[in-house]
Amino acid sequence: MNKSFTSKLSRYAVPILFTIIIAIGLWIAKPPLSYVTSEIGKRMVRNTFLVLSLIIPIIAGMGINFGIPLGAMSGQIGLIFAQDWGITGPAGILVAVLIGTPIAIMLGKFSGHVLNRARGREMITSMMLAFFMLGVYMLFLLYLYGSLVPMHNQSMILSKGYGIKNSITLTTGHAIDNILLYNINFPVTAKQSVNIDIPVVTILIIALLCVFIVWFKKTKLGHDMKAVGMDQVISGNAGIYSDKVRVQSIVISTVLACYGQIIYLQNIGTLATYAGQDQAALYAAASILVGGASVMRASIPNAVLGTMLFHLMFIILPQAGRILTGDAMMGEYFRTFISYGVVTVALIMHAYNRLKQAEEARQENRREALGGGEPTSGESAAS
Predict the structure, then answer these.
(1) Measured between alpha carbons, how far is residue 83 from residues 19, 77, 92, 201 in Å?
(2) Nearest 5°: phi and psi at 151?
(3) Range of the domain at 255
(4) In this predicted structure, what is the pLDDT of residue 317?
(5) d(CA 69, CA 113)
(6) 7-38 pLDDT, tens digit each
(7) Is residue 377 part of a domain?
(8) Angle 284-288-293 (CA atoms, 0-180°, nearest 5)?
(9) pTM value?
(10) Has residue 176 been placed in a domain?
(11) Residue 146 Ramachandran class (φ > 0 left, ψ -120 to 50 alpha, else beta)
């Protein structure tokens, strides 16, 4: 019983720690409830889809897919084409999806094949791939777009006559959110009320992704991914082609990241052309780890809880830092430190657990080689 409690406490240590930090921050900052609920609602709608895109590669044993910026770049290219062609509103989002999807599939296949050649180092390799593709992405938008690829919207072009500007105000901003938007206002106290905008269609899209993940886990491909994630040797002996399954998991994740980035950007309303995808992987990875996931196991509740806790920290800590030190940047520095720290600690724990499991497997093999019992003195001397 004590061992089981210790195991659960260790597994949920990160979300418990974050809850304590946020509670202390709330006690210090005492922000208005209306502000906190409004901000966390916006951030949940904006970021949850991207975080959910990390689950399927984890099921397949690929760890956290730090290559989701490839999908984010695909979505951004789709939005840029839609903006350049003058297609606005939901139609512009549809065009962005139609353009971004094949690009994301192509990049996902490329990434999956590379990661198959880097078994055991998938996470750092996917991160390096994201940096590599960022260079190709910048080459396309800075030099090829407007010179080889014709441009129609002159307001997007740089002064030199080709290349996309650093920041673009999207004509597709809030295109999904505004399809069906409900405003709820309810009193909390005699002097305070909470005003929340609920983008129903965006929330339904996120809910559909959750249903898809639950359904996908029950399909043959989902079971194959789970088997490959548990043991590639045994799954291979069972007739599962692990390389193909691993590539498919990365392709699905990359395509979902493409859609997630489109949802994220239409909610913000502006596109940072060359930096918009930079934090996609880090913040999504930190969010799912904060929710209690690991690089070997993740679920929808981990993603949703982690997104809420991680972004509550965004809202609360700068205010708490301003009150404690007189400088809001102190809270921002602490938040950045925690963000990178969570990912670092998770990767260290993953490496430690893998070494521990390998050592336990070696000891088990040695016991089996010795007949399942303790070695005799003669055997010890011989060894």
Answers:
(1) 41, 10, 7, 22
(2) -110, 145
(3) 2-369
(4) 80
(5) 17
(6) 666 677 778 888 888 888 889 888 888 788 88
(7) no
(8) 150
(9) 0.88
(10) yes
(11) left
Chain length of the chain: 383
Any domain includes 376: no
Tokens of 296: 């070997």
Q: Which helix (H) or strand (E) holds 222?
A: helix 220-230
- Answer whether 64's CB lies under 8 Å from 282's CB: no
Judge whether 380 lies within some domain.
Answer: no
Scan for tokens 């996908």, then name that residue: 216
What tens digit of pLDDT does each residue of 136-145 get?
999 999 999 8
The per-residue DSSP string of 287-346 comes to HHHHTT--SS---HHHHHHHHHHHHHHHHHHHHHHHHHHS-HHHHHHHHHHHHHHHHHHH
3-state secondary structure at position 157? strand
Q: Which one-letter DSSP state was computed for residue 149?
A: B
Backbone angles phi, psi at 298, to 5 degrees: -150, 155
Q: How many domains, in total, are found in the chain? A: 1
Instruction: Kindly list the distances between the CA atom of residue 46 and the CA atoms of 64, 121, 264, in Å, as whole numbers in the listed order.
Output: 20, 30, 5
Specify the DSSP class assigned to residue 154.
Answer: G
**In angstroms, how far is CA 236 from the centroid of its own chain?**
29
Q: Please identify which residue in the block is written with the tokens 């996120």.
A: 206
Residue 263's Cβ-side half-sphere holds a number of Cα atoms within 13 Å equal to 27
